[in-house]
Model the fold of this input.
Amino acid sequence: MAYSEKVIDHYSNPKNVGTLDKSKTNVGTGLVGAPECGDVMRLQIEVDETTHTITDAKFKTFGCGSAIASSSLATEWLKGKTVDQALAIDNMELVEELNLPPVKIHCSVLAEDAIKAAINDYRVKNGMDALVFEERIH
Amino acid sequence: MKIFELFDIEPRFVVDAALLKNKWLQLSKQYHPDYLQQATEWEQADALQTLAEINKAYKLLQNKTQLIEYILSEKGIIQAGEKQSIEPQFLASVMDANEQLADAEFEGDTAAQQEIFSELEQTNHELETSMAAIFKKTVASCTQEELLQIKQYLFHKKYLARILERKI
Done:
């Protein structure tokens, strides 16, 4: 199965690769992995504490092209969104945008999990409860 | 578990290679078309299919990782589509190793790369040592806790293998 053009674009020119200072209270870090393929993904958000808007997002992914593209696209979408809007990002939106084949859907799930983990890290750092997300069948 | 039944051996995570080869030679002889020339056409076709199953099982029994996955699936410890969780601490160490390696690759620092790989190999070695006792047991005598420990081992191995693939 060939990768879609959008996957190749994000894979060869990933957007927002890097690291934010995880010691800052307004930075949330999500670190997730997919043990069955050995992928590991870190996604970070920097939040404006007065407006709850995500001002910056960075990622680093060691995995396949689809995992890199999913996290790259996710960071692009995150910037400018409020934390609540970010929570609504669904992995199927990533799948549609990147034209991921069924065998690569789990890569988009990983990116969605990373977003949620980053938001929870931000919430806990700022005295809020971590949100509990429903386990879904993929 | 079918593949062990085929070979008439007790289910284990690590199968003795000599014993396995012996059984395989025996079975190959038993089901090989050359030895069944007097049998009916139907019996021959049946034997050929059994032989194919035996060869497939033989491959699986020789591959440690695949065999562990097979046994854990049969025992319901690993389920298809199941969300796997892995300890954050381990994930963080994998991320660190990946980042250090990427930096070293970028800078063309082969000495640093070698060092990272030898650390990873050390981790790998420690992981194997910590599991050696469990792998000596039969599957039937493993407790649920031990099976879960093996599942964790399997995932750690996959992560390590993934990074070690990049070894120069």
User: Anything to note?
Assistant: The domain at 2-62 of chain B is CATH 1.10.287.110 (Helix Hairpins). Chain B has a mean pLDDT of 92. Chain B touches chain A through 19 residues (CB under 8 Å). DSSP finds seven helices and no strands in chain B.
